[in-house]
Amino acid sequence: FDSYDFGINDTKAFFLDLSVNWTTSTPAFNKINNLFNVPMFDFTTFSALNKSGLSLIYAYGGLIPNNIDDWTSGTFVKDFYKVDVTSYPFSISPVISGGISPGPLCDHKSIFDDKGKLYIWGGQTAYIKDQTMYIFDTFDSTWSQILPLYVPAQRSSYTATFKNGKIYFIGGIFQAILIYDIDTNDPWTINYATNNFNISNRYAHSAVLAPNNQSIILYGGLNPNDSIPADYLITLDLRTFEFSEIVTKNKPSIDDVSAYHTTTVIYNNYMIVCFGDFPVKNPNRNVIRVLDLKDSTWIDNFETISTNPSTTSQVSNSSTKPTPPNIPTNNVNKNIIVSSIVGSIIF
Q1: Apex CA 279: angle with CA 276 and CA 282, to 5°?
Q2: Is 202 strand, coil or helix?
Q3: Measured between alpha carbons, how far is 36 from 13 in angstroms, rounded to an integer?
Q4: How far is Cα 316 from Cα 320, in angstroms, rounded to an integer?
Q5: Which pLDDT score is estimated for 324?
Q6: Residue/partner pairs of 57-61 with CB below 8 Å, 24 or more apart
Q7: 3-346 domain in CATH 3.20.20.140?
Q8: H helix runs in the chain, sequence order
Q9: 8 Å CB contact between 317 and 274
Q10: DSSP calls for 93-144
Q11: What distances in angstroms separate CA 280 from CA 69, 122, 231, 252, 324, one per listed residue?
Q12: Cis bond leading into 89, ω under 30°?
C-alpha cells in the first residue's frame, strides 16, 4: 500500500522474493509481520550494510505529516535504528550512539562507504539549513562531523551513489553534480556533465550504480517546475562525465513510467523499479516495473537467477501481499526488503 494514498503505516515492511519467478502484475510480495511496530515515517532514509557476517539495515530520520493527504509539512524526527535481516524472523533495535547526530530531518540520503561508515548530508531540517556532513562509524557507534571551508548549498530530494571512495550527489533541482571524496581533508568538488544542456534538471528521482560499475542510472523524478522529464531514464558515464538517454524497448505507457519517489535497485542485469507517485492516478497500475539492462527491454516476467546478485540500495514507497513463507536461516540474500514509507534495500 502507498502510505500517501491509504494512510500512514498501513503496511510497515515486506519483502519481494527474488528466488522465485513472478510477473509485474503479480509480484512475489510477502509481509514481514514481526516488523509491524517499526517506527517508520515519511521520507526516512535507509541504508544496507554487510558486516562481520551480518546483514543490517540502518534507518534515520523522517517526517510525521500533519495530514495524510499532505506530506509537505509536519514534525521532523531523529529516530535511529537498525534491522537485522541476517536470518528470519528479523529483529529491530534502536542505535545507541555517541557524539552529535544530524538531529531531526527528512528527505535526505544516507549511504555507506566500503569501511562501515554511514554518511548523511542535506535534506530538510526543522530549524536551520545544515550543511554539515555527518558520519556514523558502525564499529564504535559514534558520530563525527566534517564542515570544511568549502561546503555546497544544502539539497534535498537528490540521489547519492558511492563508488571507489567518492559519493556522487545528483539532482535536487540543481544541474551541478557534487562529489564528496571520503579520503581527503577538503572533500567537496563540484562538476558538470559535459553535455548537461541536453538533460533535464530533476529531483525526487532515483539512482543506482550500473552493473558495469562505470555509470550511474537515473530514473524518473520531476523537473523544477514539477513536470515530468521527457528523458525519464538517463545514465551518467563516470569515465567521460557525459549524460545519455537510455532508449528502451517494449516501453510501457508514459503514465506508467513517469514516476517519482520510486524505489530502484539493481539485481544482476535487472533494474527493478518499485512504487512511486504518478502524475496520473491509476489504481490498476502495476507497482513493479522491470528493465532488462542487457538489451534495455521492459519485461513483464521476472525469472530468478541462480548466480550471486550484484547489489545496490536506494529509497522509496511500498506495497504488500500475503504473509511470508518459511524463510531458511541465512538465506535472505535474494530478497528486496521494502518499507512502507520511502525505503528499500536489496540483500
Answers
A1: 75
A2: coil
A3: 7
A4: 14
A5: 36
A6: 57/82, 57/83, 57/85, 57/337, 57/345, 58/82, 58/95, 58/110, 58/118, 58/136, 58/138, 59/83, 59/339, 59/343, 60/102, 60/108, 60/110, 60/120, 61/102, 61/104, 61/105, 61/106, 61/108, 61/123
A7: no
A8: 3-6, 254-257
A9: yes
A10: EEPP-BS----SEES-EEEE-TTSEEEEE--EESSS---PEEEEETTTTEEE
A11: 16, 30, 18, 14, 32
A12: yes
Buried-state track 266-276, b at ≥16 Cβ within 10 A, e below 16:
bbbebbbbbbb
Q: Which of 314, 158, 160, 283 lies closest to 222 in space, CA to CA?
A: 158
How many whole angstroms from its chain centre is CA 61?
14
Residue 176 cell numbers, joined:
551541478
Percent helix, strand, coil in the chain (nearest 5)? 5, 45, 55
The distance in angstroms from the start CA to the end CA of the chain is: 22
Q: Give the pLDDT confidence score for residue 126 in this predicted structure.
A: 62
Residue 242 C-alpha cell reads as: 557525459
E strand or H helix at 245: strand 242-245
Judged by phi (left if over 0) then psi (alpha if -120 to 50, else beta), residue 275 lies in left
Q: What is the pLDDT of residue 5?
A: 40
* C-alpha cell read off for 134: 555527518
Cell, residue 168:
556522487
Weakly modelled stretches of the chain, pLDDT under 70: 1-12, 34-44, 68-73, 126-129, 196-197, 254-256, 280, 282-286, 306-347
| pTM score | 0.84
pLDDT value for 87: 82
Cα 5 to Cα 62, 69, 70, 107, 254, distances in angstroms: 18, 7, 10, 19, 21
Q: Where are the domains of the chain?
A: 3-346
pLDDT at residue number 118: 96
Please name every residue paired with 245 in a beta bridge, in sequence order, or none if there are none. Answer: 234
